[in-house]
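A student in our group prepared the protein record below, which I am reviewing. I have pasted the whole thing underneath without changing anything:
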Amino acid sequence: MPTTQDRNTDLPRARQPGQPSLLPDWMRNPPPPRTTLGDRVAGGLLRIPGAPRIRRAWWAWRERQRLYQRFPNAVKIVAFFASWAVALALVLIAWGLFSMA
């Protein structure tokens, strides 16, 4: 029968806080990401007066909730009656065209 000490050696043990890390230096302290062309262009465009305000307004506009998201059932009911009205108008137009002949 294995003892408790034998069972504990099979399990991986967490690194104790006082011990040095086994990771290489480039993983513990990675270099900063390179600046891409898009980052440089965006940085230049943000120096234009009023650009941060325009960017915040654009983000707010993109994050807004549409009516069909806020009131899904009401939009479905309105869409049902609107499609019924369009179908009725098409039938009446077709009936009127065929009755002219």
Summary: DSSP finds six helices and no strands in the chain. The chain has a mean pLDDT of 85.
